[in-house]
Design a protein that fits this description.
- By secondary structure, the chain is mostly helical.
- The protein contains 46 helices and no strands.
- Helix 33 packs antiparallel against helix 34.
- The longest helix has 27 residues.
- It is globular, with a radius of gyration of 36 Å.
- The chain starts with a helix and ends in a 9-residue tail after the last helix.
- 41% of the residues are buried.
Length: 995
Amino acid sequence: MDEVQTIEAAVLSFYRGGSEQQKETHKWLQQVQNSPQAWSFCWDLMQLNKSSEVQFFGAITLNSKLRNDWAEVPKEAHHELKQKLLETIVVFGNGPKIVLNRLCISLGLFIVHMLRHPTVIEEVTNMFLNEQLGNLSKITQFEILMAVLEGIPEEVKNVRTQIPRPMVCDELNRNAEFVMQTVVTYLNEKLSRSTVEAHDMNGLINAAKCTGTWVTHGNVRLDERETTVQVLLKAIHYCYWKEPKDDGCLLPEENELAETALKSLTSIISSYATQNAKYSVTVINFMKMFLDVLVPILDAEYKENNDNENLALMIYALFISTLECFSSAIFDGIVTESEEVSKVYTRTVDMLIKCTDKPGTYPVDESCSTYAMEFWYMLQEEVLAMGASRHKTRCLEAIRPVYAHVVKVLVRKSQLPTESSLHKWNDDDLEAFRCYRQDIGDTLLSCHDVLNDMMLDVLSEALDESIMYLSFEGQSTENWTLLEATIHAFCSIAQKIEYTEHQQIVKLLKVLNEIPYEKYNDKLFGMALETVGAYSEWIGDNPKYLPSAISLLVKGLNSTKASQATLGLKDLTSECQKEVVPYAVPLLDACRTALQEGHLKNAEMIRLMYTVGNILSVISYDNIIVYLDAMVSPCFEELQVHVQHNDVSEPTKARVILRLDMISKLFSSLNIKKTVNETGEKMSMVMGGLKPCYPAGQAPVPGPAPVQPILLILEKTMDLLKNLCTLWMHDETVVDTLCKALQQALTNLMDDIKPLLNEICYLVLSILNNNCVVSAVDIAGNFILMFYNELEYRPMMVQLFTAIMDYNFNQMQMNLDKLSRIADLIETFYAFNTRISKKLPICYSHIQVDYMKLMDYATKCMMLPETGPMKKSVAFITMFVKESINNPAMVQVVMMHGENIIRTTFLCIGGTALRTQVEVFADIFLAINCCYPQALAQWMKVLETPNFPTAFVSAADKELFMRNVIKERVSKRLVQDYVRKFAALCRNVVEYESK
């Protein structure tokens, strides 16, 4: 008794104490729950004279013991346990409900454990049906019975029993029809009365839940579920129409019953999804029933801010789920001889058009319209997937008017909120609307796939209407939203528009240049700029419209929407690089002015430098030099000032990173050779791949190639970059940004970097010796891969390689017991070694590398919890093993370290690595089996060690795994499958059959 009082005091302390006290008390209570004595004291805690907190703790303790510790109950005590459970349910039959619910779950768990007795479900059910539980009312007994039955299938998924799982599933299937018949009879009886008493609602809700959880059991045909479907629809109809609601809102119990019935209907439909063709007639019948009963509810709720929005949502969800599961059956109605199927299809389309066009703005006035998006994608996919045939042509002709209408609806629904309505919106609403508009954009792409060129006609018509509306409401400053939405629609389909000079696009670009943006919200201008950028490729094919596009984007540089303008210019100068030449100088002047005025944000300035690089790449060399001096010099001048003042403050750091990012972006796009090469390639294509012929003695004499502008910049600024690097060597972010700029220079210069190669390599070398940042390793790896085989540069490449190895070995040695601290460094290091071992394995022959240390650390890093270094280490070991067969020194490493690699691999599979990641270790088995099959067979005998890698896997399972892996040298998929299943065995996890 003292023990019960102590537990009771602890429970009350937990609920009423502070957070620290709660943590300790919770830990102690968990230990108490797990003790064998919990079977005894849980009943003492569930006494009526105890507080509800203590009673609840007693109930969850019993629940926990039944779920986890059933083996502690002797067989002879089963009957006594059942009686105690039933008696306690009677005690709490009238509440507290929180305790009663747990007891119902516990009785369900007891039944699951007793399923080897074939009549256990019938016995318990009949006990409740015949009112054999004390003085509880018949209504309460039904309510409890439904709650118990509803939980049984769920508990089967989660509880471990002493009964084999196949036997449990067989018993559920055998009992399913008895349970379903009991539930449906109960529902029918209650709903057939003129009114349902309020005290019956909980029982009805539990019964409706029951149908949803049991429907997957019983091996019953879908057409045999008609009675169940009818009674669930009857429940929804009753809840909605039983009497007028003063405020239009369903009572909470009615709403819960209707929504539960809808969930169960969805479960019934989705349970037969894999049997699409088999039940086409049945599904059409069910859809007709859904349309007859549920569409009138949707019509009644077709308004803004309706009080039963969630019910409407769930009705739409049922329709969409049915369409997803049985699309072909319903879409047969597009063109069919069957009037019934045709009507179902037509009514479904009409209903989902109304869903798309739900009154109000998503998500503040309505939340249904987003549900229909999936349907418009499904319908077009179904039709377009048909083989070329007359039937497909007829289907397309039939659905095009529907999609034309949907396009106009989507344009209207995608209107942004006006300033006067924004007070109703919070940040979550705005984010939801942003996603909604993206969904509309994606849906418009589906519409284009159906409509093709007709899409432009529809949008052109919408453009005319939005301009008329703008003119009609000339005095208003909030009438811009429809025009903005129409432009957004054009923008959304830009990727689908081919090179043809479509007059609708010509009209769009004309309109975009004529809108008086200063009169309206700047979001309208932002969308116009984004749209011009989206049509860059089309403008490249129709360059006569380039001046107007440039004009609009340049105007945008000096506006609040400079972000969209810089994005548009980046796209336009990338897609129309040659065509922009006549406008290059004024465009460069505009860019220079925008950069000098200082109103651009950092990201906009960086992006604009990419545009500058694109333009500089195609103008005359003399002009390149002039504009480089005017536009790039300010970046280096500012960096020089910071270096001279030894300024390493945080504000200066931000400016240094900005300037380096601007230089990096310029380096990524400025390449005069690229444009020359592209011209040559185009000429070659035009001439059918033949070289041009010249008269004898008149072939042009090639002059000296001009120096790449990036090289000129680097030649002038190398000393500054070295000083900058020295000043900021302590700061990883600055050094990383500098290395990225050098990487961009290398990417564009390639061999042209040779005049400065040694200087840049020394700079990178100094970084590697002090602060081995990711991008320094990346650029060093690129240098090595590009120039190692050139004897002139090999000594420098060896120094880079050695510096990377030494720095990383030192870091790993210093952090040997806490390698996770340098996880990013390890990931980069082994990614580098994988590249080298794959593309330039000769490096490992020429350079004095401690292979054993390299492999030892890789093996240790495989066991890190971080996915990145683990995967990169596995990839390195795999590649090293494959390449070793051509290198005696590498062979020796593999042979000496192989058993340790295999042992560590098994430890990872057994539990160190995430179960979702174990398939990556198949690569190691395949590589070793391919190159060293006999050694693998020997090394895998480590599995014969008792309880290795875990105690859960049997010797027979180990033997089977070894045989399977050793015999498979080709199929990666098969070995991955073996590894995944072995990992499940090692962790005592059940592999679901679906896998």
